[in-house]
Design goal:
alpha/beta; eight-stranded mixed beta sheet; 24% helix
Length: 158
Amino acid sequence: MQLAELQLRRPSDLLAGHSQRKTQRVVPVEYTRNIVTSQRAQLQKWRIRFSHISTDFGRQGMKDLAEIIPLLHRSRRPTFFTHDLGFFDPVLCHKDYSVVCLDVNAKETAVYIRRFLRHPGFRTQKQRLGKVILARQRNLSFWEIGNQELQRLGWPKP
């Protein structure tokens, strides 16, 4: 399966039942990378708009920390989703972005992106900013600015 890098344009589309909002609001840019083709199709099926990092912005083969972190700094309060666990580092906590490392099966990526953005502790941009999060099947672990201890949250029951 081919891996791709994506940018989600409307994270509000990830909230079930809220894709047809009466009032439009400006939402932050969401970046993801290393999403298998089937998961891109699932995101499209859920009417989540996205574009490829390598074709719509940036370039193919961007270096992880050397080029992606500066991209996050130039963007307006993004949330960055990746399967690269090298990004799960408290040094990367920054007030203007958040990082979500997905330690889940590649075939479940779309489900976990949507599930994360629905989580009561991370639903809003304000709740996500300044955090580096590890999303696993059983729970979420995260570091945040101002707290040196690793924190954990469970997934809400469906």
